[in-house]
Predict the 3D structure of the following.
Amino acid sequence: MFSVISAASVDSVKGLIDPLANNVETLMNELENNKNTIDNSQEHARRLKYEADNLDGMLGNTRVVSENAVRAATAYKKIIDALSEALTAADQASASAQNASTVVR
């Protein structure tokens, strides 16, 4: 039922303990390095999101400013057009008045 383990087998197993311990230590160090990399990556992602949100907010403000500028330019053009039409109407009225003055004399 129980088999006898030879001294050579025991020595063979003992010879594997140090390499296994070294391998475990190496894997633990790699795990710690990976954890640090993950933490740094997550922090970097948070900073990028913060910057993206800031840029989006600035773009939103720029949209409002540009819309206001377009409205102002449109209003200015309408004023210029109205003044031009008023000047044309005044010129026509003046010409009509001169014609009426000439006819009445």
Observations:
- The two ends are 147 Å apart (CA to CA).
